[in-house]
């Protein structure tokens, strides 16, 4: 193998180049019959000045663009528009802009799948427990002689063969959790949020999701008015504040699980973000989620230290 | 509810045993008949009426236990005793007997039933006096007493199923009841009107209105958010429909043409007045403008009267303009525009296309039928449901034969004959 490579060092490169050109031709000629895994990736990019300005989440770019057709995504930061709503009236208050790598990532199903499997493994209790033969209480006396009884050979009465004996290779409490690179998991978080954004199922609320009344009836009326309930695919409400600061909300939604759920930002995981019809999230909660899941975007501490 | 017939009630039997006169000669050996033969109205002692007080019959319960000979005298006596007890006529409490027939505390609805009782009473008394014939009329009498138990005689319909009946006692019901007792808050409506406009012409009119208002304010240099502020003065802007909107020369903005020069100042004044009042108005509260109003606008003008040529390319990529237009459009039409739609939309032509686009079909069959291409193919059939073996048999006319054969053998169970 090595000799052949040495004999013709450029052969592999040439082969690869020819292969890619063929593949590109083929792709260009045949129509695309299947949907790509990264669907809906066309970005109509705003102006560069606007984009850089809007990397800061609270800024409101004043510059205007006239581009009407979607263009290929340029390298560098961009921003997507979101409406910030009031609650519970859901009046549009203003536009805010989020970086594309926060809320407009391509939908990577493989990454979402890995994150959900990772979370599922992590969530497993793993408490199944049985007694093996040495853990069963009892004597180690031989049940009957080795030979001459006409019956099977047996050791003590705790043998896995016997009723009341131990379990052979039975389950013991263990940790089922698997590993996933932090950067992949963080990307999955932002991919899940981006998926919601692309489908128009991410509603960002300015202040707090706290309700004025703690009754389930009131919450039902809110859900019905905004079409958030069961007929419209249920809703997940994510709060920034802890439960004791949103008592009315959590109390009201406690009795209407068929209409939706409320969770604090610390309780949410990727699977929750993908489960229901839409996500209603406090602006603060979204900021905290994004801040907590951007290790693949920021430089590591070690590198920063080295640079200093 | 099954009712125990009156004479079987123990109190009646007891009464019968000691009230029956020895000399009473009744033709009937039946205990019941003998008991009924006693003429109640003639008896004077109140204990005669004990059975009546225990009865659930309306007629019998109406009989008072004690009837004073001279009611006026009795009332005067009662008053004097009460005055002594309470220390003066003014302080007397509870003078009204709530159980009295004329008491103001009685439920007014019961009056009708009482009148009926009054009307029936003389007949019943006569019946009772004709004691000898009573045994023969027993069945009839029991029939008439049954009628008395239904307060809404003639209108009452017995429910065969529980559908439509009020449910009482569930967990939800208890919760709702407690909320009602507490007087909980109600969420009336959100910022958007509850009904969406779906008529394309009305949507076009709403978009025109939003664009005209926003660009007028932009021209004057006022706050664009004023358009979607809640106020009644917006109704006065009826002339907005006669305004023509077209693109500006550079294509970045819109030109709003007023048919009359006073109109522009009018709209500005109206919105200025609105700005003053809206400071005190809660912005959270719901707007007055509904889809009904927007749809009423469209009746008078057509699309060509509203727009100038090339209006679809009017740009709304300025974030402030875009926000004002989007917000006003949401308010007028009831359509919530999602973030990616807003992100991708840069002209009002795109915006109109988005809101007038028909909703995505929920079922595959709806999509196929709407498309129509497959239906044109001769060897393809589109069915809304799964095609079962029975459907196939029915199609070739074999189902009837099969059913007949099965029925002949007594095997067709539960199928409609």
TrEMBL record, chain A:
Source organism, top-level taxon: Eukaryota
Full protein name: Large ribosomal subunit protein uL4m
Location of region: Disordered: 142-168
Molecular function (Gene Ontology), one example: structural constituent of ribosome
Pfam families: Ribosomal_L4
Gene Ontology annotations of biological process type: translation
Keywords: Ribonucleoprotein, Ribosomal protein
NCBIfam families assigned to the protein according to its UniProt record, in alphabetical order: rplD_bact (TIGR03953)
Family of the protein in this entry: Belongs to the universal ribosomal protein uL4 family.
CC per GO annotation: ribonucleoprotein complex; ribosome
TrEMBL record, chain B:
Polar residues bias spans: 277-286
Cellular compartments annotated: Mitochondrion
Residues of the signal peptide: none
Region (Disordered) residue spans: 92-153, 277-298
Keywords from the named record: Mitochondrion, Ribonucleoprotein, Ribosomal protein
Gene Ontology annotations for the cellular component aspect, listed alphabetically: mitochondrion; ribonucleoprotein complex; ribosome
InterPro entries: Ribosomal_m50 (IPR018305)
Amino acid composition bias (Basic and acidic residues), ranges on this chain: 113-124, 131-153
Sequence similarity: Belongs to the mitochondrion-specific ribosomal protein mL50 family.
Protein name stated in the entry: Large ribosomal subunit protein mL50
Protein's organism: Mytilinidion resinicola
């Amino acid at each position: 193998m090595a000799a052949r490579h040495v004999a013709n060092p450029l052969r592999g490169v040439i082969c690869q180049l020819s292969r890619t050109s063929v593949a590109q031709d083929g792709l260009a000629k045949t129509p695309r019959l299947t949907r790509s895994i990264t669907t809906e990736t066309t970005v109509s990019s705003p102006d560069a000045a606007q984009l850089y300005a809007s990397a800061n989440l609270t800024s409101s770019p004043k510059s205007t663009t006239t581009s009407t057709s979607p263009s290929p995504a340029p390298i560098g930061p961009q921003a997507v528009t979101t409406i910030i709503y009031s609650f519970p009236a859901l009046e549009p208050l203003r536009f805010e802009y989020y970086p594309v790598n926060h809320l407009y990532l391509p939908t990577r199903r493989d990454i979402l799948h890995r994150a959900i499997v990772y979370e599922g493994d992590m969530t497993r209790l793993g408490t199944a427990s049985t007694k093996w033969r040495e853990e069963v209480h009892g004597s180690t006396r031989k049940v009957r002689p080795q030979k001459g009884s006409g019956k099977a050979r047996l050791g003590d009465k705790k043998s896995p063969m016997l009723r009341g004996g131990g379990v052979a290779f039975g389950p013991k409490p263990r940790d089922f959790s698997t590993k996933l690179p932090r950067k992949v998991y963080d990307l999955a978080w932002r991919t899940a949020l981006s998926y919601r954004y692309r489908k128009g199922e991410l509603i960002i609320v300015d202040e707090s999701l706290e309700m004025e009344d703690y009754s389930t009836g009131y919450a039902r009326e809110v859900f019905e008015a905004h079409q958030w309930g069961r007929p419209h695919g249920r809703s997940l409400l994510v709060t920034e504040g802890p439960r004791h600061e949103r008592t009315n909300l959590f109390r009201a939604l406690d009795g209407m699980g068929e209409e939706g759920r409320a969770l604090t930002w610390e309780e949410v995981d990727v699977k929750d973000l993908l489960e229901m019809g839409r996500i209603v999230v406090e602006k603060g909660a979204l900021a905290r989620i994004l801040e907590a899941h951007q290790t693949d975007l920021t430089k590591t501490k070690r590198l920063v230290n080295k640079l200093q | 509810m099954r009712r125990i017939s009156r004479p079987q009630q123990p109190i009646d039997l007891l009464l019968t045993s000691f009230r029956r006169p020895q000399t009473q000669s009744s033709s009937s050996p039946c205990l019941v008949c003998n008991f009924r033969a006693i003429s109640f109205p003639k008896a004077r002692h109140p204990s005669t009426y004990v059975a009546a007080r225990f009865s659930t019959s309306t007629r019998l319960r109406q009989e008072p236990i004690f009837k004073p000979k001279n009611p006026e005298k009795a009332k005067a006596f009662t008053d004097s005793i009460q005055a002594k007890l309470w220390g003066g006529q003014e302080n007397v409490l509870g003078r009204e007997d709530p159980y009295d027939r004329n008491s103001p505390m009685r439920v007014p609805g019961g009056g009708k039933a009482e009148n009926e009782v009054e009307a029936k009473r003389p007949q019943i008394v006569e019946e009772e006096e004709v004691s000898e014939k009573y045994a023969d009329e027993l069945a009839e009498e029991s029939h008439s007493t049954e009628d008395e138990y239904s307060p809404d005689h003639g209108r009452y319909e017995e429910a065969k199923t529980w559908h439509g009946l009020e449910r009482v006692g569930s967990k939800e019901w208890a919760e709702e009841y407690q909320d009602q007792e507490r007087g909980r808050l109600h969420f009336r409506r959100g910022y958007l009107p509850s009904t969406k406009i779906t008529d394309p012409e009305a949507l076009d009119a709403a978009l025109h209105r939003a664009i005209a208002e926003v660009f007028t304010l932009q021209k004057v240099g006022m706050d664009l958010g004023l358009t979607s502020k809640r106020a009644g003065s917006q109704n006065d802007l009826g002339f907005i429909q006669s305004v023509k909107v077209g693109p500006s020369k550079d294509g970045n903005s819109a030109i709003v043409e007023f048919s009359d020069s006073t109109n522009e100042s009018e709209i500005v004044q109206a919105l200025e007045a609105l700005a003053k009042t809206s400071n005190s108005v809660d912005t959270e509260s719901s707007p007055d403008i509904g889809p009904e109003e927007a749809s009423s606008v469209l009746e008078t003008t057509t699309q060509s009267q509203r727009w100038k040529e090339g209006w679809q390319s009017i740009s709304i990529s300025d974030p402030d303009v875009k926000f004002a237009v989007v917000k006003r459009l949401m308010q007028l039409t009831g359509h919530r525009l999602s973030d990616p739609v807003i992100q991708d939309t840069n002209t009002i032509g795109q915006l109109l296309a988005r809101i007038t686009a028909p909703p995505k079909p929920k079922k595959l069959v709806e999509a196929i039928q709407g498309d129509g291409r497959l239906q044109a193919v001769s060897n393809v059939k589109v069915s809304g449901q799964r095609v079962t073996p029975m459907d196939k048999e029915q199609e070739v006319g074999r189902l009837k034969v099969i059913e007949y054969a099965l029925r002949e053998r007594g095997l067709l169970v539960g199928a409609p004959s």
